[in-house]
Amino acid sequence: MLVFVDLKICAALLLRDFADSRLSYCHNKLRDDLMDALTANVNWLGVGLSTIICFMLGALWFSTRLFGEKWAEGIGIKIDPSHKQSVTALVSQFFGTLLLAWIVGLAVGNGSIASVVLITLAVFFIVIASNLMGEHTLYAALVEGGFVIAMAVIMVLCNLVILS
C-alpha cells in the first residue's frame, strides 16, 4: 500500500512539474512572441524623431500663431501668457504621441500603410465625436482631428525617409 501511495505522489509531482514547466514555456513563448510582434521591423529612430516633431508641432498648432485662439474659444478656455499648461495633460500627450508613433512605425516597418490610414481615420473620428459630445465647436473638433491627421502624415514620412 505504501508503494502505491508513493507512486501516486510521484505521479502527481511529475504531472505538476510537467504542467508547471509547460505553463512556464507557454508563458515565456507568449511573452517573447508578443514582444517580437510589437517590435518587429520598428524604425526606432523614426519613432523618436516623429514623436519629437509632432510634440513640437502641437505647441505651434494650438498656439495663437495657427489655430489656438479660435480653437480655445471653441472649447471654452482662454489663452493668455499667464495661463500655465497642465503638466499631466502635456505628459499624457507626449506618451500618446509616442505610442501612436510606435504603432505607425510598426505598421510602416511591416509594409502596412493601409493600417496607418485606418488607425488615423478611427482616431480622427473618435476625437471629433468626443469634442462634439463635449459641446465644443465644430471648428475646435476639426482642429484637434486635423492634428491627428498631421501627426500621422509626419510619422509615416519620418519612417519612410529614415528607412530609405
Secondary-structure element string = HHHHHH
Task: Find the structural class using helix and strand composition.
Answer: mainly alpha
Label the overall shape: elongated
**Domains, number:** 2
Low-confidence segments, ≥5 residues, pLDDT <50?
A: none
Strand residues, percent: under 5%
The radius of gyration computed from the alpha-carbon positions, rounded to a whole number of angstroms, is: 25 Å
- Biggest pleated sheet: none
The strand count comes to 0
Helix content: over 70%
Mean pLDDT: 85
Termini gap? 74 Å
Total number of helices: 6
How would you describe this structure to a colleague?
The radius of gyration is 25 Å and the shape is elongated. The chain contains 6 helices and no strands. It folds into 2 domains: 39 residues; 123 residues, no CATH class.
